[in-house]
Amino acid sequence: MYEQITSNSLLSKDKKIVSIQQRSLPQVKMEGVKLLGMWGSPFAIRAKMVLEHKGLSYQYLEEDLSNKSELLLKHNPIYQKVPVLIHGERGICESLVILEYIDENWSETGPSVLPASPYERAIARFWAVYIDDKILPLVVGLINFANEETKAKHIANLHAAFEILEEAFKKCSAGKDFFGGDSIGYLDMTLGCYLAWIRAVERISEAKLLDETKVPLLAEWEKRILTVDCVKKALPSVEKLEVLGREMRAEGYQGSSAN
C-alpha cells in the first residue's frame, strides 16, 4: 500500500481573479463524474484541485489500496492505481492527463488551467514532468533515509531542484502571483499538490526543504497558493500526513521513484 501512496502512477504518471484568494465559484452540476482517490496521494489531491478550481460537482470515492475496488480495477486495469476520473462510463487515468481532460472538456466552465498559447502550454508540460520526476522521489526518499549521508544528499538535491524551479517560476509568472499569472493554473496545481507532504516530511526528517532563504519567490508563492479556495479544499493537513509518513517509516518504507 505505501509503495502505491508515493508512486507517481498511483499518485499518477499515477479568466481573471479579482484578488490573490480565488473567488468561490458556483458548482456546476455534472452527472456521472466520479473521482477515485486516496486521501494521502498528492496526485489524487491534484485531481481534486482542478475539479474544485473549475467549480464542478463530483462524487469522491476513497479507495482502500490494500483491497482495491472493482470500479478501480475496471477503469485502470493497467496500473490499478489512483487517481482515476470517471466521466459517464469512461475512465481517465494519470493526474496530469486528468487536469488536461477537465480543462478541455469543460472549457467554458470556471477558470482555465492550461495557458492559451501553444508554446506556453508546451513549456508548462515540460516543467510539470520535471516536478514529478525530481520532487517526488527526493521528498519521499526522506521519509525513511538509510543513513545521514543519504539524507544529506537528498536534501542537497532537493534544494537544487527547488532553485531550478525558482527560476522557472520567475519566467512563467512574469512578475505575477502564480505560475499561471494572475490566477493559479497547470503548474501551480502540479507543484501545489506536494506542499503539505513537503512540510510533513520536513517534520519527519527534521530538515528544511522549501527554504525561503534559498527560494524566496517560491516561499511567497506557497503563502499565496495556500489561500486559494480549491487548494484549501484539496490539501489534507500537514499533521495528518506526518502521522501517515511516520507510519510508513515505521514499516521500513524506502521510497520510490516516479513512474
From TrEMBL:
Class of this enzyme: transferase
GO biological process terms on file: glutathione metabolic process; toxin catabolic process
Assigned EC number: 2.5.1.18
Reactions catalysed according to its record: RX + glutathione = an S-substituted glutathione + a halide anion + H(+)
GST C-terminal domain location: 117-252
GO cellular component: cytoplasm
PROSITE patterns in the cross-refs: GST_CTER (PS50405), GST_NTER (PS50404)
Keywords linked to the UniProt accession: Transferase
GO MF annotation, one: glutathione transferase activity
CDD domains: GST_C_Tau, GST_N_Tau
InterPro entries per record: Glutathione-S-Trfase_C-like, Glutathione-S-Trfase_C_sf, Glutathione_S-Trfase, Glutathione_S-Trfase_N, GST_C_Tau, Omega/Tau-like, Thioredoxin-like_sf
GST N-terminal domain residues: 31-110
Family, per entry: Belongs to the GST superfamily. Tau family.
Protein name: glutathione transferase
Taxonomic classification: Eukaryota, Viridiplantae, Streptophyta, Embryophyta, Tracheophyta
